[in-house]
Design a protein that fits this description.
398 residues, alpha+beta, six-stranded antiparallel sheet, three-stranded antiparallel sheet, 9 helices, ribonucleoprotein
């Protein structure tokens, strides 16, 4: 069974390593794609600026003799934006601080206080001061698309142009969140007149997170006024009915009643639903576990038998010697051994003294006489001693 556990651990480790490698290559591919998109966009901007400068110089120098660039092969695309410029910079090319700065007035990026359907006013660009509804929010780039505003003509690539179709088409370009502000009707408490007000700051309050579904809810509030701004109403989803749809009466009908007498499904269905022979499987039936343990025990016994049967003559001799030594037990010192040890110690001592040029060594007394100071007796001991002494009659007075 340990072999199966090790096999599963190895398989999981290899799968995790492979997934990490695939993720790394995917990130590198996305990064290369975003870099190429960014370079194409910069190249298109440089080309447009160069053409604009050239046309300006021709108009200034040649006057009425300047070439008419709105005619000819590219005449239909005159004034249209290159398709590469329509692709905005990807989120990988922006830091988290830049994304947070774009969303500063509307809260944090992961808790944004604007939604689709909000009315906003544009603060930059040719449509500055105009109000429109948000049609799309791109959280990865912190940009919003306002319905009907910030439009521009984009020329279609040659391979996408169909015969009879215009060479360019009009699209709504996204705007950074920092370039818009929320517009909401607020009633003046003094005059009682309700009119649109531009809200420059929003904060999230009354934050609630559902532990079951993981959904988050909060209230967007104007700081300083403690005024809650309601969220825009979401349009109801249009559900189209088809002939193959199941009727609600059939869906709500109870067709299965579980009982305690039989399982909800045959046991053989479990093997059909899961990978019975998967290398990632960790739970097995008791019969399978018992069979594997029996196989491991049989292999262990077989290995022990094989090791005993393939011993060499030298291994047999060493085994016999170890068995004989074990029978004798631990060795004990006899009197003869102790005498021989004493002789060797005396011989070594004599050799040491001769080397040090000493005839004999003064014996050191085993115990040295030491004077021990006796502490004075305590008052209780003196009193006890006086009580034990015999009392004598006082001497007669002369």
């Amino acid at each position: 069974m340990q072999k199966i556990i090790r096999r599963v651990a190895t398989t999981e480790r290899v799968a995790a390593k492979r997934a990490k490698k695939i993720k790394y290559y995917k990130q590198q591919a996305d990064k290369d794609e975003s870099n190429s998109t960014f370079l194409a966009q910069r190249r298109a901007i440089r080309d447009d600026i160069s053409l604009a400068k050239s046309a300006y110089k021709d108009d200034w120098k040649l006057g009425p003799l300047a070439p008419r660039i709105n005619h000819g092969e590219t005449g239909d695309n005159h004034g249209a934006v290159n398709e590469a410029r329509f692709m905005t910079s990807s989120a990988e090319l922006m830091s988290k601080e830049q994304l947070a700065e774009r969303c500063k007035w509307a809260g944090r990026l992961n808790r944004l206080n604007i939604a689709q359907g909000d009315r906003v006013v544009v603060l930059e660009g040719p449509d500055k001061g105009r109000i429109g509804k948000i049609s799309d929010i791109d959280l990865d780039k912190a940009m919003v698309t306002v319905e009907g505003l910030n439009k521009s003509n984009v020329r279609a690539p040659s391979h996408m142009q169909a015969p009879g179709q215009p060479a360019n088409y009009t699209l709504e370009f996204p705007l950074p969140i920092s370039s818009v502000r929320l517009v909401y009707p607020v009633q003046n408490p003094t005059t009682g007149i309700t009119k649109d007000v531009i809200i420059n700051q929003l904060v999230a309050t009354e934050y609630v997170r559902d532990r079951v579904t993981g959904k988050e809810r909060w209230t967007r509030t104007i700081p300083g006024l403690s005024m809650a701004i309601p969220w825009p109403e979401k349009p109801p989803k249009e559900v189209k009915e088809h002939p193959a749809d199941t009727l609600r009466i059939r869906v709500e009908q109870r067709t299965f009643i579980p009982t305690l007498l039989r399982p909800p499904m045959p046991e053989s269905v479990l093997d059909e639903l899961r990978g019975k022979y998967s290398r990632f499987r960790t739970r097995h039936e008791p019969e399978y576990i018992a069979a594997k343990e029996a196989e491991a025990q049989a292999a262990k016994e077989r290995n022990a038998t094989l090791m005993d049967s393939i011993r060499t003559p030298l291994q047999e001799l060493h085994r016999h010697e170890r068995a004989e030594k074990k029978k004798k037990g631990k060795p004990r010192l006899t009197l003869e051994m102790l005498e021989e040890i004493g002789k060797v110690i005396a011989k070594n001592r004599e050799r040491t003294l001769n080397a040090a040029a000493m005839s004999s060594v003064e014996p050191v007394p085993a115990t040295a006489a030491t004077e021990v100071a006796t502490p004075p007796p305590s008052e209780d001991a003196v009193a006890e001693k006086d009580s034990e002494a015999p009392t004598q009659p006082p001497a007669p007075s002369s």
